[in-house]
TrEMBL record:
MF GO annotations: flavin adenine dinucleotide binding; N,N-dimethylaniline monooxygenase activity; NADP binding
InterPro entries reported for this sequence: Auxin_biosynth/cation_transpt, FAD/NAD-bd_sf, Flavin_mOase-like
Name of the featured protein: Cation diffusion facilitator CzcD-associated flavoprotein CzcO
Keyword Transmembrane: no
Length: 68
């Protein structure tokens, strides 16, 4: 299981925040790419990035340097 989630789907001006099964039971932080500023808050954690566009790939690359 992951400790945090980053949704990287939709345009920054109008983020798409999908509803996922089990989302209400998840107790970790959930952030959208539009809210992402730095990998620092996710350091040492297990993180999943949801999305396939450029922001998702760029964020995943940054997070891979500091997460488990």
């Amino acid at each position: 299981m992951t400790a945090a989630a980053v949704a990287a789907s939709g345009a920054f001006g109008r983020p798409c925040r999908p509803t996922l099964p089990g989302q209400d039971d998840f107790t970790g932080p959930v952030a959208h790419a539009a809210d992402y500023r730095s990998p620092v808050p996710f350091a040492g954690r297990r993180v999943v990035v949801v999305g396939a566009g450029n922001p998702a790939v760029q964020i995943a690359a940054e997070l891979a340097q500091v997460t488990r």
